[in-house]
């Protein structure tokens, strides 16, 4: 076999902008195509918007109408927060939706003795929702202060490409429980959806209709429509009439009874459940979820910038986005969504799947969220899609985000044993520690931390149940303390140096400048 010469080997130089996108952050497809792509992002956001209320509202004592109203409210606030973030926050094409990070402290509030003693179900639901609102309003101040004071910008200067690899990767990989385990609960719907989506979006992506790669860009809508009809036929034929409740919930269309329970027209408004109630224990416990959401959002912003073919967001822009997310969590508390906000990971993955990173598309999707949350029956129709269909899509979208995190390795020296140690340990413990907490909570109905101080328990159980948060703690600590003096180049710091300040690279102004010439009043640092 002939010896391969070094000059004949293929070299792939590191690239601070991901190439191959049809439209990047500040370029736009035609209006017709943008509207269709925006609707696709809206459909994808329904998974989380329905799953969280479906899980929490019955535990709060609410009925189907309460659940439908919470879903509408969550979608409405998601639309508002998405518009605010894309206009005035990081300006990245990110959907700001409900977060699972808040489930632990919310469950703690639900099981509070003062609330569980209320006999009437609807009254208990309203009182519990008001307690959650109060905790969200108080805890949102953490993100608002860290963001607008630029404290998070200072913290982010310790984040190197090496340290961000496990964080961004586990933003995707850490959600593995919402992938195939949910498909397995209704394999006759989930598995065909997964196979069909991969086939259309990848193997048929070069199919053109009027010079548009229709399957690459709209395969998700096509697959959902086909499998949704198939699922409805199974439901209408009575295939699940005598099956277990878990199977019915996973497989049937509108098992959540959203269509029958939703009003035709309903406009969510602040304090619609009544004035919030405030409790110090609840607020302190919720602050842990706010910190987890902050870290997960930071990783998602890094991934979104990559999948929008933009440069890494400067520290100033990142901090500005966190401040606006704090405003979003405040709005969650005022409107009563039952959870806080974070970047929708699945929608970030869809940017990569479609190769469309346009900001305008996400803003259009926010318009759909607001519109269909007001027209309750129509929104509930789309929200009746079985969870299993979304789980099949998540398998692809979360995988894309994990791969984006691994792509940051191109800026580092992976022939360094130091770097191999940091990446390996933080990735492994980032998965292993949260898995231990998850199994412990499943088996004993409480987390490993179960002291008499409930707020402390929520803090520990929430922080260490989040894979990206555990990964950030370990990776950033090791990266900034282990042989750091001579490792700047190996860590990839030289690649991100010019993106640490707003004026460090001319492209920052192109991607991240505020609209309406607002930079005159809020000059970047």
From TrEMBL:
Any Pfam family hit: Xan_ur_permease
Superkingdom assignment: Eukaryota
InterPro entries: MetI-like_sf, NCS2
Ranges that cross the membrane: 39-58, 70-88, 94-110, 131-152, 158-176, 183-203, 218-240, 361-383, 389-408, 420-438, 458-478
GO molecular function, one term: transmembrane transporter activity
Major localisation: membrane
Coiled coil: none
Mode of membrane association: Multi-pass membrane protein
Subcellular location: Membrane
Any one annotated GO CC term: membrane
UniProtKB keywords: Membrane, Transmembrane, Transmembrane helix
Record-stated family: Belongs to the nucleobase:cation symporter-2 (NCS2) (TC 2.A.40) family.
This protein's name: Nucleobase-ascorbate transporter 2
Source organism of this protein record: Lolium multiflorum (Italian ryegrass)
Lineage: Eukaryota, Viridiplantae, Streptophyta, Embryophyta, Tracheophyta
